[in-house]
Amino acid sequence: MTINDCGLSLYQEENYSLMTINDCGLSLYKDENYSLMTINDCGLSFYKDENYSLMTIIDCGLSLYQEENYSLMTINDCGLSLYKDENYSLITINDYGLSLYQEENYSLMTINDCGLSLYKDENYSLMTLIDCGLSLYQEENYSLMTINDCGLSLYQDENYSSMTVVQI
Prior knowledge:
Elements: E1 2-4, E2 7-12, E3 17-22, E4 25-30, E5 35-40, E6 43-48, E7 53-58, E8 61-65, E9 72-76, E10 79-83, E11 90-93, E12 98-99, E13 108-111, E14 116-119, E15 126-129, E16 134-137, E17 144-147, E18 152-156, E19 163-167
C-alpha cells in the first residue's frame, strides 16, 4: 500500500489487480478477464474484452454500449432508459412511477449479454451490477456509492463537488 501526492495505490497479489486512487480518480486493473475499471472525475468506465462492451457511469447516469445489438442504456437521476435497436423499445424507471415494456414482474430487469441486473427496492434506491460487483446506493441526494469488490465508499455532496474515499 502506497500513499503519495498522486494518491493511493493498492497492489493485491491474489488476483494480480492494481487499484490506483489519484487526483484523476480510481483505476482498477484485473488480470482475470483483462477488464479495465476506471473511476475519474467524469465517472466510471468498464471495459470488458469478452464482448467488447463499454459501460460508463458519469454524473448524468450510466450509459451501456454493446457492440452486439448496438443498444444504449442510460441510468440518470430521472430514472432508467433502455433503447434497443432490435425493436426500438424503451424501458423507463423514474421516481414518479415504473414504465416497463417487455417485463413481467415490473421489479427486476436482467440483461444477460451484459450480466447486468438492476434491483429496485421500495424507494428505488439500490442498483447492482453483478459482473462488476458494483452497488450504487442512492440516498435522497444521491450521495452514497459503494463498490463492494474494492471495499470503497464514495460520498458525493449535494453539488457533486466533493468526493471522499472511505474504507469499509
